Amino acid sequence: MNKITAAITAVNGYVPPTVLSNKDLEKLVDTNDEWIMTRTGIKERRILNEPGLATSDMAVEAVNGLLKKRGIGAEEIDLIIFATVTSDMIFPSAACILADKIGAKNAFGYDLAAACSGFLFSIETASNFICAGKYKKVLVVGGDKMSSIIDYTDRNTCIIFGDGCGAVLLEPNYEGLGVIDSVLKIDGSGRHFLHQKAGGSLKPPSHETIDAKEHFVYQDGKTVFKFAVTGMADVSAQIMERNNLSSEDIAWLVPHQANLRIIDATAERMGLGKEKVMINIDHFGNTTNGTLPLCLWEWENKLKKGDNLVLAAFGGGFTWGAIYLKWAYDGI
Ligand code: UT7
Questions:
Q1: Could you point out which of 13, 210, 234, 236 has its C-alpha 20 to 30 Å from the C-alpha of 268?
Q2: Residue of 25, 186, 259 to test ligand 1 pocket, by largest number of atoms within 8 Å of CB
Q3: Which domains does the chain have, with CATH numbers?
């Protein structure tokens, strides 16, 4: 029998209906559409602002649609890996809550926290579960309700992030399609530049931490930018080199959507024109773990069996990496 690889066999996404535009943000903080567009490429983002709804609720929408597309029931799922930094609660995991809400009665699962690289790390993890031969249907979900940890009086961060969630199904493939290679990295010394100071075991939430707004995202944008712009391009170039891929061989770059300038630098380093780069930062902003699956969802109908895709991300930690995969089905 041919070697097992793990291929994506279905994808779906969900973004909440409420739009938060740059014009809306102009009313909240001292900023303007022109600054946001030239520095980030973001025009608007979606916000989950209905009380009582959390990250898992966006996942329910994405996953139920995915199951319908693939024509399978939730009870067929073996494993759920949920990449998120905004789980509904500290515990139990969003994966547990999702399993209950969709009726995935035969699955085990857990959350994977790697900031903006969580979806990439989850794909690698899922791929290894499948290649080991025991698991046949692995759901990888990437999503965040970033609006729950954003300070809408801080212009450094509130312009960047949005809410959204995507999901993919991975299954065994015997034609050599699916995940081929990965370059994944962490360097915790970057933790000082992008983090949520309070709410964890180091600084449990208190009146003081709330007053100091330490339950919100803190980012030293300039420093993160410097590391991200080289980090994401380096691993993308590396994965091309060690798989003997030229820019002509690559059908699509699927980059994390943090800043259009970071995406452009990565594409340039790979020798790719804009027409080969999935970009949705203009209408969704940075949805953290949602960016990559939301791109795949939006571009699904353009993808063809055998297409070479490079997925790349950079995020808090620092965490970063690139995955080379061969798409397994013609767009629907
Ligand atoms: O997804 C996880 C990984 N995250 C990233 O990859 C994000 C990386 N960083 C970035 O994308 C960029 O650093 C930002 C978009 C966050 C900021 O862009 P920047 O070009 O690095 O701007 P800056 O922080 O250096 O600020 C430049 C100026 C400052 O004013 P002064 O000090 O030069 O007078 C800021 O105060 O722009 C000011 N500024 C703003 N002005 C209008 C900062 N935020 C805003 C704003 N509107 N929203």
A1: 13
A2: 259
A3: 5-176 (3.40.47.10), 180-326 (3.40.47.10)
